[in-house]
């Protein structure tokens, strides 16, 4: 276009650069994942031959079938689901009640408490690994789902409280006062007004809690043996000392990643909705 | 609908420890059943705190509040038989208009037929029947206000509480809603307590006004009493537009000396040489052009408002306001004389601000 003015063109250049940067970032993040998907659905010979063969006729879900038939793998999957769900339920139950009282009731030291919880988050898990291991072993919780759930809850709860406090803070206090005059008890206000209104925030936080517990490798590796092994630990085990079953590792990786991917997509929608609802409050 | 008296007996509210300054100090007065009473005062004067204490949203530190003869300090908000209209309306965003109005009725386990009847009655009265299926988000400010009112009256409470309900509306809508509120109150007959910082709103709506300042009740009386016989200098300065002229003056034998060469007659009984505060309503004063170089002051600015014109003067005692009917041909800088012959002299103690006793006949 001839009539495009100089400054406008510069803006366009900036925009193009921005898009290129975003595209590169997406490629950087997505390609390894796609490569893993490709690895899981082609026989390894196809990928080791030169040139690689991607014939559609060679596509196979054999490895998926094999893994779902493997009782050890299925057990690690069940473990992950149990640990993820249990951690989420505990964190949301305790976390939302704690967050509500911090957000709504005046008491001495509430802000200090909130800060203290964040400070704990600043300690890296690796520092705590050995003491945690000793603790769990002494309490007889090593290699147990209970031990793992308790550990995750301790790590995730502060984050859940922080997120829920900010969601509760965005709900106008007068709504709760109106509900109290309309006839709700404190708990009734929570059930009929606060929770329905913090729905998107509640869902987003729950999904965050689940994803964090589901995808943890480090703590699970340290605190579990063959009994309470979770999916990430099991997946890593396909990398052997002398041989690595790449197809199995890739397949397990895809299986581990899919729920996270699905939940992240849902959470993104919830979070966006949560933000816009806060913007037009009342 | 029933109505109930509301009685304050030495009510105080403190937010901090015992030695902190209370937000509300020793209130004692009675709001008669069915009356419309405004709590008027500047922000931070304790009027909203008082309203919240009636509602039970905040506790009472000392004293007691009774509604319909029953002390309510230990009664939950929803058992006090009252409804509350909030400044930001506080409509439940996740419920449609119908459910917003029905919420309080459902909580009281009302049967469905009666509930439906009540919701539709309230909606009809406030002309929002066509909005019943909408969420609050889809409504304009004025409509939200009506939903909030409908929610309050659907419950048919003995007491209606309003916390600055008109302050979020634009000027035109505010005037209209004010009128409707008055009609609504006459229809439903509930005892109404209305918090506002707008003295015009308070004057036009109320049977009685409680003027508050710094947590204290300054005066409780009808709009006429408040305007014509303000009990304190604060009330005198807060009520009335434009603001009353308040000057420090000295008593003389038969009157008051405002400044050198500016004395007015007033048959007071205060003795000579006493310093007091004098209040004069701008609308009761008048001005006339003085000869060049003479006069008590000069015109600083004129504000023609149609039915009348407000004139601000610079005088020996500082700013002085006069309101004259119609328009004026005075211009900024013109020298003028001020006449206060017909004006009521409101006298206040210079220290305490309390109204000083009026002479038997107000002098001219």
TrEMBL record, chain A:
The keyword GTP-binding does not apply. GO terms for biological process: transmembrane transport. InterPro entries: BP-dep_ABC_trans_perm, MetI-like, MetI-like_sf. Its main location: membrane. It comes from the Bacteria. Keywords: Cell membrane, Membrane, Transmembrane, Transmembrane helix, Transport. The chain crosses the membrane at residues 20-42, 81-102, 114-136, 148-168, 189-214, 246-267. PROSITE patterns: ABC_TM1. It is found in: Cell membrane. GO terms for cellular component: plasma membrane. It holds the Pfam family BPD_transp_1. It is a multi-pass membrane protein. Residues 77-267 form the ABC transmembrane type-1 domain. PANTHER family: INNER MEMBRANE ABC TRANSPORTER PERMEASE PROTEIN YCJP, MALTOSE TRANSPORT SYSTEM PERMEASE-RELATED. Belongs to the binding-protein-dependent transport system permease family. This is Carbohydrate ABC transporter permease. It comes from Phycicoccus avicenniae.
UniProtKB/TrEMBL annotation, chain B:
Keywords: ATP-binding, Nucleotide-binding, Transport. It holds the Pfam family TOBE_2. GO terms for molecular function: ABC-type transporter activity; ATP binding; ATP hydrolysis activity. GO terms for cellular component: ATP-binding cassette (ABC) transporter complex, substrate-binding subunit-containing. This is ABC transporter ATP-binding protein. The keyword Transport applies. Residues 6-239 form the ABC transporter domain. It comes from Phycicoccus avicenniae. SMART domains: AAA.
